[in-house]
Amino acid sequence: MNNIGANTRMTNIEAIYLSGKNLYGDDFDLSQIAEWYKDEKEGYAELGANNTTTYQYVYHSLNYQHAFKYIRKIQFNHVLGLGSAYGDEFLAIMPKINQITILEPSDAFVQDRVHGVPCKYIKPSLNGTMPFEDSSFDLITCIGVLHHIPNVTRVVKEIYRCLTNDGYALVREPIVSMGDWSKPRQGLTKRERGIPVEIFRNIIKDTGFKVKRETLCCFPIIPIIYKLIRKPAYNSDVATWADARLSSLFKWNIRYHPTKVIHKFRPTSIYFLLTKE
After folding, report:
1. What is the pLDDT of residue 46?
2. pLDDT reported for residue 6
3. Which helix or strand (DSSP H or E) is residue 121 part of?
4. Sequence-ordered alpha helix ranges (H) in 58-192
5. What is the pLDDT of residue 74?
6. pTM for this predicted structure
């Protein structure tokens, strides 16, 4: 009976969630969310980010080309980073930031200042509600975070609520399944999964955000090539430029869960520059 039950669950996951028609975890109850957070709390840190001697942030060029270069002239009073770890994602605009708050479940990254800017770390709540007043931040970043949490729609609504009316939100997430998350996957945390692109767009739209820019990125060939030369692809302007061109060229081939080799030749992430007006 146990094996039959397990096989039935796997069939349901494959049919409902791996199809990309539903977002796994977005309708979880609080007990299910608690189990998810327990699994993910130290996931990023345990993959090596907590080792400060070897850790390197590897998305500086990607963030700049797709988002930061369009807001680099703006001065930000208070910035919120969701799951921002050491806060390295802000480096490109650090001189333009007065104060940083980071919503981070792990204790591994806590510090008083990020590259000289005062920083406060706060732990997220299970239900997704953020402990901030409405319109508290003029910039909110959520870069590679939503795919680690179950209740995506709830958190996106909270980002909207906490953003000032003339503020910006930067959101980048994978739009592919990242494999079958019911099984262990090398180099990935237990629960992370991508967000189907049409579901993601609808969440953004229904929340009320205005999309200033939407770009596709993270074409699989680019990081593979740069891995051979032992350099982080998305810290390279050349690689990031090539990645954007290939991602645009193959946007017709987006599949949430690939079943053929040809399906893997597509952009795997999307980058949103959002405003609240």
Report:
1. 54
2. 39
3. strand 117-122
4. 60-66, 152-162
5. 94
6. 0.90
